[in-house]
Amino acid sequence: MQDGSPDRVDRRLVAILAADVVGYSRLMEADEAGTARVLREHRAVADPLVAEHGGRIVKTTGDGVLIEFPSVVGAVQCAVALQKLMAERNTGVPSERRMEWRVGIHLGDILIEGEDILGDGVNLAARLEGIAEPGGICISEDAFRQVRGKIETEFLDGGEQALKNIARPVRVYRALPASAPVSSAPRRNRLGAPRQAVDRRAAIPEHERGPRAGIFRRRHG
């Protein structure tokens, strides 16, 4: 097959970010003009963040957006920045009027059709977005492998999930908010940037230290 043949299929490996607004239909029903205006305003401040992290907005579909990135790290960092921005912009807004995003990210080989991207990778990113929490980020195992230990964000291992119209179960990881309390997830399931272990006893003079077992004494009652 020669280059330039009409039968030639262009492909590339990219990080795919899919996002949409939670409860958009409800918001539109309550205030159509106001919701459309607020969405435009949010996108106006979000677009520079996408460009800053190397992303290209492939298309927008009402309340949704599809973005491709050459780097998974860039895609996840952009998603974290976008969710932080939205949380700030929702400050003081009544809960029933807040515009919250769900984000899904996958690393996949996609088909190129003009300015559009197609394929299983795009579908999987959209399904991950569908199971993300409002204000949350859900990524595939393929994407997680590329960011583990490279960014500050920690992730909760969500195990294998059966996603609609995806043939095989997919292992998913959910980003933990920076403000999440330490007890919000079991330590064995919390993964992300490596952290240095600290021995709190090291700051106590040796002669003042009690028996080591006492530090871990279980409290009852």
Structure, described:
- The chain has a single domain, classed as Alpha-Beta Plaits, CATH 3.30.70.1230.
- It is globular.
- The chain has 6 helices and 9 strands, in the order βααββαββαβαβββα.
- The chain has helices at residues 24-30, 32-52, 72-89, 120-131, 141-147, 212-215, and strands spanning 10-21, 56-61, 64-69, 101-113, 116-118, 137-140, 155-161, 170-175, 190-191.
- By secondary structure, it is an alpha+beta fold.
- The model is unreliable at 180-188 and 194-221 (pLDDT under 50).
- Strands 1, 2, 3, 4, 5, 6, 7, 8 and 9 form a 9-stranded mixed sheet that branches.
- The termini are far apart.
Write the layout of secondary structure elements.
Elements: E1 10-21, H1 24-30, H2 32-52, E2 56-61, E3 64-69, H3 72-89, E4 101-113, E5 116-118, H4 120-131, E6 137-140, H5 141-147, E7 155-161, E8 170-175, E9 190-191, H6 212-215
Parallel strand pairs: 4-6
Antiparallel strand pairs: 1-3, 1-4, 2-3, 4-5, 6-8, 7-8, 7-9
Helix pairs in contact: 1-2, 2-3
Structural features:
221 residues; alpha+beta; Alpha-Beta Plaits; 9-stranded mixed β-sheet; globular
What's this, in brief?
With 221 residues, this protein is an alpha+beta fold. It has six helices and nine strands, in the order E-H-H-E-E-H-E-E-H-E-H-E-E-E-H. It has one domain: Nucleotide cyclase, GGDEF domain (Alpha-Beta Plaits, 2-Layer Sandwich), CATH 3.30.70.1230.
